[in-house]
Amino acid sequence: MNIEFINPFVEASYEILKEVLQVDIRREDIYLKDRITEIQGVAALIGLLGCAEGRLLLDMNTDTAIKICSMMTGETYTTVDEMVINSITELANMITANAVTKLHNRGYNLNLTPPSIIKGNNVEIADKDLETLVVPLQLPFGKVEINIALKEI
């Protein structure tokens, strides 16, 4: 996995979460997962295509997703409803757009698929030939994990 492709996603995730939520964020130790990832409850899945291919998974538990939505909208939510899904989709769009812009500025061409939201327990994402790098970001009210599975073409 080429760090040139990974760093923009890590940087963008940190920057966007900090800007949008106005909270302190602590990056925890990065680790590798095998080819099967079980989501925590709510995840945005974005496909990446171009000079590299793979996917980004923005993963969190339901309480964290609800709190993020509440902070983004200024309203109180208690369940993962349409507004929570829309907020997490928008957050994923902002993060990936920022990361792809950083990559384009470095001379790499990478395109995105629109985010798909996956929710539920015991849901697994299988990546056939890709190892997943996980970057946990600890927020004051929960954790968001950035899962990046990407290979250069």
What does this protein structure show overall?
The protein has 153 residues and is an alpha+beta fold. It has one domain: CheC-like (Chemotaxis protein chec). It has helices at 3-21, 62-73, 82-105; strands at 26-27, 31-33, 36-38, 42-50, 52-60, 110-112, 116-119, 124-126, 132-139, 142-152. The strands form two sheets. Strands 1, 2, 4, 5, 6, 7, 9 and 10 form an eight-stranded antiparallel sheet that branches. Helix 1 packs across helix 3 (82-105). The chain is globular, with a radius of gyration of 14 Å.
Structural key phrases:
single chain; about 150 residues; alpha+beta; Chemotaxis protein chec; eight-stranded antiparallel beta sheet; 3 helices; 10 strands
Q: Estimate percent helicity.
A: 25-40%
Order of helices and strands: HEEEEEHHEEEEE
| Count of individual helical segments | 3
| CATH fold naming | Chemotaxis protein chec
Within CATH, the superfamily carries the name CheC-like
> How much beta, percentage-wise?
35-45%
Work out the count of structural domains.
Answer: 1
> How many strands, which pairing sense, and closed or not: the largest β-sheet?
8 strands, antiparallel
Kindly name the structural category: alpha+beta
Question: What's the β-strand tally?
Answer: 10
Q: What's the CATH architecture name?
A: 3-Layer(aba) Sandwich
Shape: globular
Measure the end-to-end span.
11 Å
Tell me, what is the CATH class? Alpha Beta
What is the mean predicted local confidence, pLDDT? 93
Q: Runs with pLDDT <50, length 5+?
A: none
Q: How large is the radius of gyration? A: 14 Å
